Amino acid sequence: xxxxxxxxxxxxxxxxxxxxxxxxxxxxxxxxxxxxxxxxxxxxxxxxxxxxxxxxxxxxxxxxxxxxxxxxxxxxxxxxxxxxxxxxxxxxxxxxxxxxxxxxxxxxxxxxxxxxxxxxxxxxxxxxxxxxxxxxxxxxxxxxxxxxxxxxxxxxxxxxxxxxxxxxxxxxxxxxxxxxxxxxxxxxxxxxxxxxxxxxxxxxxxxxxxxxxxxxxxxxxxxxxxxxxxxxxxxxxxxxxxxxxxxxxxxxxxxxxxxxxxxxxxxxxxxxxxxxxxxxxxxxxxxxxxxxxxxxxxxxxxxxxxxxxxxxxxxxxxxxxxxxxxxxx
Length: 329
Description:
Arc Repressor Mutant, subunit A, Helicase, Ruva Protein, domain 3, two-stranded antiparallel ribbon, Rossmann fold
């Protein structure tokens, strides 16, 4: 198990919400030092550090020296998911020139991390449930079950309870994957942590790029606190990396941060109309879903819980065009 100081360094911050997660993780790693490992579901908005937490659990658990296999369920085309997860035999489909083990078998003895597990097609969820329950997999085109031993850690930025109600998530699979649930809070709920993290990311970026050390001016600290941070910790890290690279001088001001006023908590001097507020919120959700689905309209629609045609209509209304629109989807 990693030392407590290592957990504190990975889950940086002192807000009550994050401190609660940190204590959960420490207690969990103490209890799983040997014996059976419970399936863990990590919940949180995009950019909150779910992948980081999954890797920390692996490093701190009894399988630290074994494989850690990271699977982004949103990044693999639906037609390839079954083959990628479970493997295939030679001749199972047109391009299957030779047999190939799946990611379950690649993770044998270690940890399998399924990121954005809520985007798995319902038909494939049944096969995943069978693999988790029986601890075996059958390759695509195969006739025999092969044993697997993996520690299942999953993550989602979606509300899986809503997905259950909408029929997009199997209830039996949800309960199998969420034996233990951990929720990472969004950055806007973490108060002063945003400044602590900004200083950490700024110092790290300056060191990695060989730039002189920089400090945050009081107005920069205030601007960081006022920002809504829809991209959470990932967005903050990117901002500080850009600042380290593109600014001169030892003192970073609010103007140097280049933060967008449209996403600042206190940016607007007067309350927007209800229609404007709803429109901005909808546009932000559309952009976020497209980014997470890498421009794939089907996956973006699934993330938003709306039909694909409805998604296309709303994209046109907001004059948005996904980068991959010309590609086959």
